[in-house]
Design a protein that fits this description.
The protein is an alpha+beta fold and 283 residues long. Helices cover 59% and strands 18% of the residues. The chain binds zinc ion.
Length: 283
């Protein structure tokens, strides 16, 4: 799908997907409908997505710190995506990479909003500093946008940041597979809640987040399942059949045990609990 390059940051390409234009149109229309010119909505949107890019850069630079490069950062109507070269399998690294995004938004609030408030309050001696600042609509937007980005992303809805943090905390106790299963299950619960919220608040973006979030979550769960079973494979000679393992594939999308396809003779081995359970011979 078509994306346009906005520029580079820290050697990482920043792109915007064409569907983003639909969001610009939607926001301008909403603003216009609410009695505005449409301009303030678009300016706010620019502000939101500047903060989103900084958020994604937080993930990307923390990943780089752990030796994981980022291919690119792309803006979609549902948010930004930093495409990392690979996911860290160390829970502590994943924890820091996930939390680095929302931490950037906390930093923006702390660096921009708090000093401004304090300067008005203390240096100008204005006891109504907060009321005065509220008159500065753009500043309030900046605080609000970043607060929402932190709260929304930190919901324990895998594969969102909070869900990743949640999984990282479970991994040392339950292992990577079980932790991902539980996080993905909670992610599905949140996807349903997002759909309900989308209907209540008449916000189509939430439905898209629910659909794509759930899809990405299930994809990642499948990848972890595959990797874990692969890792559990015993040495080759322990297998009850001869020949070369061609690949390990799930029997069905919902099967807990994948099967191994052998070259000679051709057989399917149902794999479970780290050992072969059943062998099917293919004539
Ligand atoms: Zn994030």
């Amino acid at each position: 799908m078509r994306s346009w390059k906005l520029g580079n940051a820290f050697g990482i390409g920043i792109y915007v997907h064409w569907t983003f234009l639909l969001l610009v149109g939607f926001v301008a229309y909403k603003d216009y409908q609410a009695g505005g010119t449409g301009l303030f909505g678009v300016v706010t949107l620019g502000l939101v997505f500047t903060c989103v890019v900084l958020h994604e850069l937080g993930h990307a630079l923390m990943a780089r710190h752990f030796g994981i490069p980022t291919r690119d950062i792309t803006l979609y109507p549902i948010g930004g995506v930093a495409r990392l070269e690979r996911m860290s399998e160390r829970p502590l690294e994943e924890f820091w990479i996930a939390i680095a995004g929302p931490a950037v938004n906390v930093a923006i609030i702390a660096l921009v909003a708090v000093p401004l408030f304090l300067s008005v309050y203390f240096f100008e001696g204005n006891p109504n500093a907060w009321a005065d600042l509220r008159a500065n609509r753009l500043l309030v937007e900046l605080i609000g946008v970043n607060a929402v980005l932190v709260l929304f992303n930190m919901l324990p809805a895998f594969p969102m940041d909070g869900g990743r943090v949640f999984r990282a905390l479970l991994v040392p106790y339950l292992g990577r597979l079980r932790a991902t299963e539980i996080a993905a299950m909670l992610g599905t619960v949140f996807a349903v809640l997002f759909v309900v919220a989308a209907v209540v608040f008449m916000n189509p973006i939430l439905i898209l987040i629910a659909i794509f979030g759930r899809f990405a979550g299930q994809q990642e769960l499948a990848a972890v399942r595959y990797a874990e079973y692969h890792r559990q494979m015993p040495p080759f000679h322990a297998l009850p059949v001869h020949g070369e393992v061609l690949d390990v594939v799930p029997v069905s999308p919902h099967a807990d045990e994948p099967a191994m396809r052998m070259s000679e003779p051709r057989a399917w081995i149902i794999w479970g609990e780290g050992r072969p359970l059943t062998t099917y011979w293919i004539e």
